[in-house]
Amino acid sequence: MLDADAAAAHVRSTWTDEIIPLLTEYVRIPALSPDFDPDWSANGHLDAAADLLSGWAADRDIGGAVVEVHRPEGLTPLITVDIPAHGSGSAGDTVLLYGHLDKQPPMEGWSDGRGPWEPVREGERLYGRGVADDGYALPASLVAIEAVRGAGGDHARCLVVVEASEESGSPDLPAHLVGLGDAVGTPSLVIGLDSGMGDWEHFWTTTSLRGLVLATVEVEVLTEGVHSGTAGGVVPSSFDVLRVLLDRVSNPMTGEVMLPSVGVTIPPERIAQAAEIAGVLGDVAAEYPFAGTTRSLSGHGEQALLARSWKAALEVTGLDGAPPPSHAGNVLRPRTVAKLSLRVPPALDARAVADELIETLTSDPPHGARITCSSDTAESGWAAPPTAPWLLSALDAAGHAAFDSAPLGHGEGGTIPFMGMLGARFPEAQFVITGVLGPGSNAHGPNEFLHIPSGERITIATAHLLDGHANR
């Protein structure tokens, strides 16, 4: 039987003595995801991060563990740690624990004294890019397993998988899964450590994830720039054409995405869940750093929660074809290019949405402008299957052991492509998607931080889940 006090003591001491020093080194590696570092192989940062984390894993005293870094030609590295069952855990059963090591770009706006590649410890927070998204996942997984073993608990065979292309939509994962073949087994439980928390006081699990379509649209009206005084009023503005096209996709005043394919009926249980969570969290819209008198598109409370988890949303994440204002001349520009990020409700076919998006943007071009559009990333979302009774009990035990409170579930607006892949491949598996990204953690933005006590608690909760799974 798992000794909860002994498990917690091991987790907390190991976080202090070993995980924090490891993550401090990890922050210093600018391991950008391939979309943001096309020369990732030559630059070597993803490999350096994989070597750092896998080296730490190999030094752990976990009997029978096999640590490997898979580097097929042309693919980003993948770490696997294969750990045999312990105690009464079944050797023929598998728990898959997931994380990733690649990072988003630095972004501007870091506070004085902080930076993306320079770790800064301030009280209970460790600042730096990738520390909470998702560098902590591998050490947390292994220390949870150590805690189970050292505190008299049990676990089935565990396979820890850490990829290096998640922030680019996990394009390399399908090929890696093919390469791993039977080594993945048939997981009956998947624990993903790449999600978030509604507050710091509860064990939060994610009940759904939105999908993601990334697209690039280019509008060309000229073969070269011309004097705006002689052409203005004759030649259409490429920016105006882009605005017209985007208005076909989303309402700029309400944010509603108008593509027919993204319309979904939100399950009644998720609406009820949002109402419950709104009572716990209060005004979730208040967590965003609105400028001036900017208001929420979706109101507050329950509606805001549903908007960011079950409704589509479009954002222009990048623009090209224009100089910065300080270098702008009186030129009617020949082209405008936009990078689009379209979040897709759970359980929809993201590729079908991408095809509709491209058709909407390229058909009947305004003023006959040349429009090109492509989408290399279309990752479907994920919705949790019905929770098995044994997992309900295990979640409750984990929540009380780690947070001294009952667990809570909520929908997340982000995308973890691997969860969709696994859900389709292993429809009988149970899923626990959780993570340390709590209020203000600001993953992908400036001042990203890891709340250290929450990292410890998530690790403790994971240990209880492993033991509960083995003894179900």
Describe the structure in your own words.
- By secondary structure, this protein is α+β, with helices and mostly antiparallel strands.
- The chain has three domains: 4-209 and 381-470, 3-Layer(aba) Sandwich (Aminopeptidase); 213-263 and 312-377, Alpha-Beta Plaits, CATH 3.30.70; 267-305, no CATH class.
- Helices cover 35% and strands 21% of the residues.
- It has 14 helices and 18 strands.
- It has helices at residues 4-27, 40-43, 45-58, 131-135, 137-150, 173-180, 228-231, 238-249, 268-281, 301-310, 350-362, 389-403, 417-425, 452-470; strands spanning 66-70, 78-83, 94-100, 120-122, 125-127, 157-163, 187-192, 204-209, 211-220, 226-227, 313-320, 331-332, 335-344, 370-379, 382-383, 408-412, 430-433, 449-451.
- Strands 1-2-6-3-7-17 form a six-stranded mixed sheet, with helices on both faces. Strands 11-13-9-14 form a four-stranded antiparallel sheet. Strands 4-5-18 form a three-stranded antiparallel sheet.
- β1 and β2 (78-83) form a beta hairpin.
- α8 (238-249) packs across α11 (350-362) and α12 (389-403) packs antiparallel against α14 (452-470).
- The radius of gyration is 23 Å and the shape is globular.
